[in-house]
């Protein structure tokens, strides 16, 4: 199997993460690189979703991926092998989330000078990543059917702050009790403006809609 | 639906959580109450597993449950309704884990004087709960098939420190790629002594084995 670059990042020395995150958003705008912060529980399907999505988008946009994990490099290897796009692994030195400083370190390593779009796959965790602004251009959350429809109720902040919610593994709906109506109502309670798209990263269902979402989102962002 | 007590706990003022956790373990031993710290990703099936298990154990042991979440009281209500045992909800004030001080506050509220066994359902999170000793008599992790077999590789600490790993949702094995051999090998790499039991909290498969595990574990603990 191929090799990917692994970098270790530490908690930012900056006291004010919010200020640093705002500065990073400005820097990305100047460079013309759109950064997407991808969050979910462990095993909700971040890497599989990104793989399917990138294969649909890579002829139109120059894409890079930064995979953050406590340990291992399986995700970065998987992305590199299955999409061919530039991919690095970020080790968080035991940290349960990424902050703006750690994100900037990752961007410096992957080199965004020739990239239109970078996906940052955050640590699998519905709590801590929501509390730290990474400086990304937008936030997305993947919630998977097997996790249950009560997650927006139990982990409100992550749903409150995201622009896009993908409800993944809809091919398994017959095997789990999952009430879409309840789930969407609880997301809307926290967040009136989030876009919600149902997908199956396994079968590819709904991924075209996600592609369209990103094409439009990035076009609008460039005009802002 | 019935009501359950909801308490809000804050991060402990104690500088040394490890010392406080050790003291709590001694206190529990004196009181004769065995405390189990239950950890998993969001949606791996902690509440459903506890419900099935408690209904098998409740004629032999006097049981209580403390449900920790950032928000909502759905789990404590569910446990109270479906098992009849005493149950409280702990709100973690946004925190992603419980420490020993927060656990002690919960135990004071639920009142352990007439309880043999208390389950503490930690916040759904594979990272932070592993880093803080709650003072429990033992730690267990529930990993579910839909999450994938690579979780012990990506979240090593939680598997390293646990006594019992339940692999849940085995009724869904045909719908997901999950290699038991790989998963068990990666758990064993970190932790030679963990007991691993495959279960389906939905169908009840394997729950009798978990019951036997706890009966033996508590008997041995009383003799220690």
Summary keywords:
eight-stranded parallel sheet, 8 strands, globular, 224 residues, alpha/beta
Order of helices and strands of chain A: EHEHEHEHEHEHHEHEH
Q: Report the sheet-strand fraction of chain A.
A: 15-25%
Give the low-pLDDT segments of chain A.
none
Strand order of the largest sheet of chain A: 1-4-3-5-2-6-7-8
Helix content of chain A: 25-40%
How would a textbook summarize the main sheet of chain A? 8 strands, parallel
**What would the average pLDDT of chain A be, to the nearest integer?**
93
Q: Span from first to last CA of chain A? A: 42 Å
Number of helices of chain A: 9
Characterize the quaternary organization of these chains: homodimer
The strand count of chain A comes to 8
Class from secondary-structure proportions of chain A: alpha/beta
Describe the structure.
Two copies of one chain form a homodimer. The first copy, chain A, has helices spanning 17-31, 46-57, 74-83, 100-110, 128-131, 151-154, 156-160, 180-190, 207-223, and strands at residues 5-8, 34-40, 63-69, 86-91, 117-121, 138-144, 164-168, 195-198. With 224 residues, chain A is an alpha/beta fold. An eight-stranded parallel sheet of chain A has the order 1-4-3-5-2-6-7-8, with helices on both faces. In chain A, helix 2 (46-57) packs parallel to helix 3 and helix 2 crosses helix 9 (207-223). The longest helix of chain A has 17 residues, at 207-223. Chain A is globular and about 45 Å long. Chain A binds chain B through residues 41-43, 69-72, 74-75, 94, 96, 123-128, 131, 144, 146-148, 150-151, 153-157, 169, 171-172, 175-176, and chain B through 41-43, 69-72, 74, 94, 96, 123-128, 131, 144, 146-148, 150-151, 153-157, 169, 171-172, 175-176.
């Amino acid at each position: 199997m191929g090799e990917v670059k692994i970098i270790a990042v530490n908690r930012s020395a900056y006291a004010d993460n919010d200020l640093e995150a705002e500065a990073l958003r400005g820097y990305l705008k100047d460079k013309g690189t759109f950064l997407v912060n991808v969050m979910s529980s462990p095993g909700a399907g971040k890497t599989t979703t990104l793989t399917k999505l990138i294969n649909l988008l890579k002829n139109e946009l120059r894409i890079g991926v930064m995979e953050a994990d406590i340990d291992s490099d399986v995700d970065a290897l998987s992305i590199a092998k299955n999409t061919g796009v530039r991919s690095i692994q970020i080790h968080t030195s035991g940290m349960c989330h990424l902050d703006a400083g750690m994100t900037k370190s990752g961007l410096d390593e992957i080199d965004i000078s020739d990239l239109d779009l970078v996906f940052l796959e955050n640590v699998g965790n519905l709590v801590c990543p929501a509390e730290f602004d990474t400086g990304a251009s937008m936030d997305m959350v993947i919630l998977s059917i097997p996790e249950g429809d009560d997650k927006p109720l139990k982990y409100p902040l992550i749903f409150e702050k995201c622009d896009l919610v993908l409800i993944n593994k809809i091919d398994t709906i017959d095997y789990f009790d999952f009430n879409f109506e309840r789930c969407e109502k609880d997301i809307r309670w926290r967040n009136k403006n989030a876009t919600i798209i149902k997908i199956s990263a396994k079968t590819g269902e709904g991924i075209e809609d996600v592609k369209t979402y990103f094409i439009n989102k990035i076009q609008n962002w460039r005009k802002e």
